[in-house]
Amino acid sequence: MILFTTSYHAQGIIHLFYLPHANMTPSQAHMQSHPVAMDCATKLGCSDSIVRFVLPLGTTVNMNGTALYEATTVIFIAQAHGVKLGLAETLVVACTSTLAAVGAAAIPSAGLVTMLMVLQAVSLDRFAADLAVVLAVDWLLDRCRTAVNLMGDTFGTFIIDRLCRKSTVL
User: Same structural domain for residues 84 and 115?
Assistant: First the structure.
């Protein structure tokens, strides 16, 4: 989508946003990389007003990595116990994990807390102890979902900036 709406290629933006990603990796905090990402977006030519509006909104609401992580983990736990989720349960997992991700704080491992809500939505809360297994690899998964969240925020900022420039009459 970024290729069709902007003059940038996704690889170029990822390369130019190396600094926010490098800042994010040791801290695992999506919110901590926010000021660095704002500075990079402004330096790359995005409108300052768009950056100051879209990037903070994306940091709060656009938690794609967390939503994918929660849905995948709940389905993994269900399959590990031989529980078959039908279409209705899968849709409940998708919707609940999306809402839980939006409600999660932008701090490390916040998705583990809201995952209990997703497990309970499909009556799998009896398997909540299995989150201890997930906790063993969560430090790595947390870095991955934080990177996905940060990329989504920055791509969204560039797309909104270019769409606003195309629709603005000078």
Answer: yes
Distance between CA atoms of residues 11 and 50, nearest Å: 22
Task: Please name the amino acid found at residue 66.
Answer: T
Q: Give me the mean pLDDT over the 58-66 stretch.
A: 84
Average pLDDT of span 12-23 = 61
Spell 15-46 as b/e; 16+ CB within 10 A means b: eebeebbebbeeebebbbbbebbbebbbebeb
Rounded Cα distance, 75 and 154, in Å: 29
Q: Distance between CA atoms of 42 and 38, rounded to whole angstroms?
A: 6
Residues 74 and 135 in one domain: yes
Q: Are residues 11 and 49 in the same domain?
A: yes
Based on the fold, state whether residues 91 and 132 are members of the same structural domain. Answer: yes
By residue range, what is the domain housing residue 108?
A: 64-143
Stretch 64-91: mean pLDDT: 93
Is pLDDT of 106 > 80? Answer: no
Quick one: pLDDT at residue 15?
62
- Tell whether 75 and 134 lie within a shared domain: yes
Residues with Cβ within 8 Å of 141's Cβ and at least 6 positions away in sequence, in order, are 69, 134
In terms of domains, do 34 and 87 share one?
no
Per-residue confidence at 170, pLDDT binned at 50, 70, 90? very low
